[in-house]
Amino acid sequence: MEMYDPQTIEPKWQKFWDDKKLFKASEDSKKEKYYLLEMLPYPSGRIHMGHVRNYTIGDVAARFKMMQGFCVLHPMGWDAFGLPAENAAIKNKIHPAKWTYENIDVMRSQLKRMGYSYDWDREFATCDPEYYRWEQLIFLKMVEKGLAFKKSSSVNWCDGCQTVLANEQVEQGKCWRCDTVVVQKSMEQWFFKITDYADELLQDIDDKLQGWPERVRVMQKNWIGKSLGVNIFFKVKDSKIVLPTYTTRCDTVFSVTFIAIAPENPIVLDLVQGTKYEKGAKEFIAKVAKQTLIDRENEEKEKEGFFIGKQAINPASGEEIPIYIANFALMYGTGIVMCDAHDKRDFKFAKKYGIPLKFVISKDGKPMDANKAKEAFTDDGILFDSGEFSGMKNQEALPKMADWLEKKKFGEKTINYKLRDWLISRQRYWGAPIPIIYCDKCGTVPVPEKDLPVVLPTDVEFTGEGGSPLAQHSAFVNTTCPKCKKKARRETDTMDTFVESSWYLLRYCSSKYEKGPVDPKAAKFWMPIDQYIGGIEHAVGHLIYCRFFTKVMRDLKMIDLNEPVVNLLTQGMVCLGGSAMSKSKGNIVDPDTIIEKYGADTARLFILFAAPPEKDLDWNDNAVEGMYRFLTRVWRLVSEVPSSKHQIPNKEGEVWKHRTIKRVTEDIERFHFNTALSALMEYVNFLSENGTSREALETLVILLSPLAPHIAEELWQHLGHKESVLETPWPKWDPKALVASSILIAVQVNGRLRGTVEVPTDSSEEEIKNQAQRLEKVQAHVAGKQIAKVIYVPKKLVNIVVRD
RNA sequence: GCCCGGGUGGAGAAAUUGGUAAACUCACAGGACUUAAAAUCCUGCGGGCCUUAACCGCCCUUGCCGGUUCAAAUCCGGCCCCGGGCACCA
Fold first, then answer.
1. What is the pLDDT of residues A310-361, one digit of tens each?
2. Which nucleotides of strand B come closer than 7 angstroms to any CB of the protein?
3. What is the value of pTM for the model shown?
4. In sequence order, what are the residues at sequence separation of 6 or more whose Cβ sits closer than 8 angstroms to the Cβ of residue A74?
5. Least crowded by CB within 10 Å, which of A251, A259, A573, A605?
């Protein structure tokens, strides 16, 4: 047989798979279905090692399941809308569509060159009108249900990207894409009412996402941020206004000595209107508004406030307390906070502005003077000066005080979430148009379904100036009102690209379906996704959005499903020299150079062997070479058949064969590809040293095939098979065949290893214990001592416990 | 500050339920083959002690300290370090 030459055999088998349509998924109801999905790539230009890792992990699982007889859906597509395309257009004078589709062509061929088992017939790009028309339909249905709505509010604005951003796209006060500091702007924008689903999204994390990593579940819980508390009402003195304040610490109500209102809260203006404080208040609000999110967070300890000249009444104590606007008060809860000496922030603020403070909790319940204290008392303790609750532990009093406040009509229990509604408007061109028309007479009018899709016009110019090119495209903007047929304008904002990726997983079930976003029958067959694989960076963005969309589409009766993903695997990054591979750092290893030098199979093996999937992986050129060596060894070993000298399967060879089948099968099942490969290497070492048989080599090739499919096909053919190795059933191990004729027993004295004995597998406990004790070294350690007991762990070890 | 992970040879890592710590791979060193090199193959490879040397043997070793157990990388308590998430959310 020829030398191992991946450059000739790999394209050969890729073509073979393609021609035979081996990866085509069909709804074959006789078989059990398995939907395996990797997060779809953004077509940025070329495949990088992160993709290679993500897709190789998925491919092994897909091929493994195919061979186990599952009916596997393993699709691929393109998250094709987004800013880089538009930025490239401005910079290089190339149309975003052209740029995107050219990139897709390059990347598709790169993926094919890796030998991935995708059903390419289901491929789509999200920028295709045939895709986003259904997204526009979902949008319209959401408008009907009040789940998509327009409102004016303070939103995150990125000046770099010239667009607004969702909360999930702001990281440490900066834009997720370009790192520009995000500022707050008041704008009228479209939102999705994800907060309506906050409770279900939270509850299902515990009920239905047991197959998700704990890390992601915790992150989503934090993000949703449910808290139970009480809105306590503070009447404003000499006014009809009542200030509701949200608190989770109603046990401190008797200590409240001032009120802080968020500058964004419009109620401030009502309070100061016509008073001598009006001007100062407005100035203060303007000043805080100018602070970026980063400033307001970084400035951390620096509390600023403005007294608005009004007093409120503490309903519990009846005391009059001052009202402030304060920068540390956020638009969370009611945007009004009751403040006291048991909160660090409140305490600091009070000290700065000379506001009196009161403690009502101390360690032992003895009164303490807050005005003499240096810092807030935030521990649990015993209440004092708190009416009927004095003397109780504050944690025990808390629910009782909530009841009491409610009974006295001083407040009401409420639930708060940190999760905000999802802002989806983007002031950019390369996205799905929001299907809305504005008419002077009829107001905001949804585009009628029959007029979908609202197609993104292609004849636009990209200057990078003057806002979105769509807004300047008069043929697009100017239209007629569907209701009154008079002149009207189109919405020129496009949707956040995370909208596309929120439901693409459903579209794959029936990607050519023409009657709706998804064929309910296909969705019923394929969904939910049995295994989803992608990066941890999507933990609170994409992975919450796609759960939300699943529930929305369920409520729109498009599907019958609560959660889209049963099992989630988040793979680690690919690093070089200690940091993540990235263009900006210039530490890139291009997958193509590895393929050219060693072939796709070697690239796949390295990435699988170097680390378990969840961990970060350090790129190492030498280790890549090692994987190539291994494949060459396999090649040589198998090519020697049928002229091989030793062809006799013996007992030891049988044990090894079955043991290897067991190890590889179980390791692939739990995604431990590195140890699966170790097991194969050990088997190859064994066969090289002890001789092979046709059966042994066939087993080796089959077990190797999900990991290194090209070489496996070639060797399978060499072994005389006509069909693909993929069409060969995955072998089963025989538990009886695992039992060797003899076993090695470790012998310990007082827990220390002193030797081993090899005994026939069917030896009795007595025999083994006796043999162990007869060992010379054991005798030496036992001599002159008394044997207290002898412990026998079946098939593993003997431990002789001695005393002096 | 709170909540998750994690810490094992020169490197990447193994060790389903406590049971021979370091499998497998890389790197390194020595050897075989070769005129030579590459490739390939063989041997060694945690630390220390004993020994002229080899073999053998003994002790220590999974971040640190303590505990449970016949037996701990694994379980429990305390501490240190690294990575990630959340955080002016009342």
1. 999 999 999 999 999 998 888 888 999 999 999 988 998 999 999 999 999 9
2. 3-5, 11-16, 19-21, 23-27, 39-42, 57-60, 70-72, 84-90
3. 0.93
4. A23, A25, A36, A37, A58, A59, A62, A117, A118, A119
5. A573
